Each structure stands twice: as structure tokens, then as C-alpha cells.
Amino acid sequence: MAQLGPDGLSEQWLLRDCGDRHWQLIALAMGQARAVFTDADGRPVYAAFCATSLELEAPGPGALGGVLGLRSALFRLGASRIGSIHHLAVDGRPAGRLRMISTFVGHGPEGGNRGILRRPPLRRVVLPEAGPELSDLAAHSRATVRALAPARPEPAPLLAVTPCPALDFNAVGLLYFPAFSALAERARTARPGPLARRDVIYLGNVDPGDSIALHPEPGQGAGALGLWRPDGVRIATVRSRYHQ
């Protein structure tokens, strides 16, 4: 039941579960029993996501009580990023794929979530080089960011909301990455069908108490939304597609 929603597999459950798998796989590759990471100076660092891409097949009948299979693998993407691929099956039938790319970050000297900095972990990890599934996602994400309009659109946002610290932030005080997808889902004005694909590029974060405004992304096609902080900084761009 926890893994399902009205349209089949729960996106929020899946992101949280695979996010934890991603962290645990990194710890395992580093020879650690726990997914707790520090840099060379002993400061905490976190495997923060740069991009995720979730693809879901149209839900079939009888999902409740079915057997969910998840096959996960971890890869290296250049010198500073790590990617994972999670293949999903329900009762042996392919049900979707989640691709995730992360880099290690830490809080800057002033603290707060507006000053997150890239910071390598103390322990290095040896992984196989990523193939096209992840390298294509990385290249597409870079191209998307380059094509984004630099300024926030002027019209009123589709949704303006202040995330709840107890519900939307994680244990290290960052707006948790599944919350970005949840906000994009709340902003849609029509319900064409179950989710088919959601691509998220994470560009920043917010502090508890900050509001987030969601605007359409000009020139990025239907279903593309930008998430903006009050200081005019885009913290994410989200593209969503749905089964008809």
C-alpha cells in the first residue's frame, strides 16, 4: 500500500526509496557501513541531486498486492558526480526507470541553504564509468540549463507556497528533493492522466520560511515549470509529461 497511489506506483515513495538506495550504494562503494559522509576537514557533506528523470509505464490492472522489483546500479560521471539507475518491474513486467545524478555538497561558512557549496568527500569511490543512459541525462540537463530564460517571468505564478519544515525538509535541513516534484504536481491545472515522465534539474535550495513561486518556463514546451526563490533565483526546472 505504501508504494502505491491512485495512478499506480507512488512517485513520492519511489523518489524517497531510491534516493536512500543511491546514498546507501555510495556508502557501500566507499566501504562504509553508514551513509554518513565528511570532507577532509571533518565537515559534513551530502550527496545532493543535480538531476533526476523518472519514467513510468501506464499503470496496469491489479497493482495492489503485486510484487515490486527494483534493480539498482551505481556509476561514475566524470570526476565529481555519481549516477544511479533504478529499473522497476511489477510482477515481472517492466514498470519504469529512474535515473539520478548527484554531487557532494556542504553548507558554506555562513550556513543556511542559499550558500550550498560543492565539496568532495574524504573517501574516494571507484565505480564503473556511466553509459549512455546517464551521460545522455547529464548532457540534456546541461543543454536545458543553458537554454533557460535568465529572469523570472512577470505574470503571477501558477502556485506560490511556503514549504513546511516538518514535511518538506530532510534531516540535514535542506528542502528534500522529492518536494520539488510534489510542488510541480500541485501546480498543474489539469489532470490529463497518470504521470509518464518527470525530469527535474536541481539548481539551488531554500531556507525554512522561504516561499517558492512556480512559473511556466518560456520556450521549454508544455509542462515545463521553473521554481523560484523570493530573491529571484531559480532553484529548479521541472518538465512533466502524462499518459493520455
Task: State the main characteristics.
single chain; 244 residues; alpha+beta; Thiol Ester Dehydrase, Chain A; 11-stranded antiparallel β-sheet; two-stranded antiparallel sheet; 13 strands; LnmK-like_bifun_acyl/decarbox
In short:
This protein is of the alpha+beta class. The protein is built from 4 helices and 13 strands.
Secondary-structure topology with pairs:
Elements: E1 4-5, E2 8-9, H1 11-29, E3 37-38, E4 44-56, E5 68-77, E6 81-90, E7 93-107, E8 116-118, H2 132-147, E9 159-161, H3 165-168, H4 177-187, E10 195-202, E11 212-216, E12 224-228, E13 234-242
Antiparallel strand pairs: 1-2, 3-4, 4-7, 4-10, 5-6, 6-7, 7-8, 9-11, 10-13, 11-12, 12-13
InterPro entries: LnmK-like_bifun_acyl/decarbox (IPR024091)
Kindly describe this structure.
Helices cover 20% and strands 36% of the residues. The chain is of the alpha+beta class. It has a single domain, classed as Thiol Ester Dehydrase, Chain A (Roll). The strands form two sheets. Strands 3, 4, 5, 6, 7, 8, 9, 10, 11, 12 and 13 form an eleven-stranded antiparallel beta sheet that branches. Strands 1-2 form a two-stranded antiparallel sheet. Helix 1 packs antiparallel against helix 4. The radius of gyration is 18 Å and the shape is globular. The chain starts with a strand and ends with a strand. InterPro entries: LnmK-like_bifun_acyl/decarbox.
